[in-house]
Amino acid sequence: MNPLRIVLAVLAVIFVVLYARQPQNPKQAMAYGKRVMIFLACTVVILPFVWLIAAVFKDPSVYNTYIFFPPISEWSAETLNLHNLRRLFEPKQTLHGTVYFWQYILNSLFFASVTTVLQAFFASMAGYALAKYRFVARHWLLLFMLGSMMIPHVLLLAPIYGMAVRFDLVDSLWGLLLPNLVSAYGIFLFRQSILGVPDELLDAGRLDGCSEFQIYFRLVMPLVRPMTAAFCLVSFLSQWNSFFMPNVFLHSDDRLTLPVVLNLYLSDYVSEYGVYLAGTALAIIPPAILFIALQKEFIQGLTSGAVKG
After folding, report:
1. Cβ distance 291 to 301 under 8 Å?
2. pLDDT average, residue stretch 150-169
3. Domain 92-303 in CATH: superfamily?
């Protein structure tokens, strides 16, 4: 019997003993069972990250020997070292000159950050207009917007690429930014959230002499801050992990984004899994920092507008 089965068996025996002591009032046993289930769930979530960290520091020669870290008695420079990280940050000679790994990180940060800010700006303005203004064909426009979300993005790749060729935007990060300026999903989220803003507040702002943009920026946006944080996090993750469009639009080595570059370490001929996982571990850090900073607003934003139609 392996150690995992032994631990599970011991936990189960303890639960049975606690329940047998007070079968008429099993509160202690149920509280213990609840804590055990939470502990097991946390373990299942954390184990992949432990495996990833172990893979980053394991030497390629022992990569497939141990699932996690080697036994402490076998820790040495031959089993645990910084080979994968050194290999990852080695200067890469390309047709466009010497390229460093941090350039790919900056490319992804620029693409994801700028796209997120622009999407939040345009989506919030459109959501505000759809929620608070009454104009002809407003419902048809909303229906068209929601219908566009059902079209797979891959079907639009060819016409978007053709437009990028005409405007000389191929092999440019701006060629990726422009098709992603507006998010129908973001417009819908902001509309649902802004519907909860009282119209009397907007009228009071107009009476005080505020322009429509000032009402939007100073009165409405602070009230939908949780939704803004939630959308920014979702949008950033989507753009940060984007692979298909950058892989098609970008050709120069110094302009590639992180997911595209990491995929180059895995091929039919050479597979550097340790280097690939080292880059993956670094790629997790920016979204994790953003989530930690916005987690409170993110949770609130997921429920805001849920009962509005």
Report:
1. no
2. 86
3. MetI-like (1.10.3720.10)
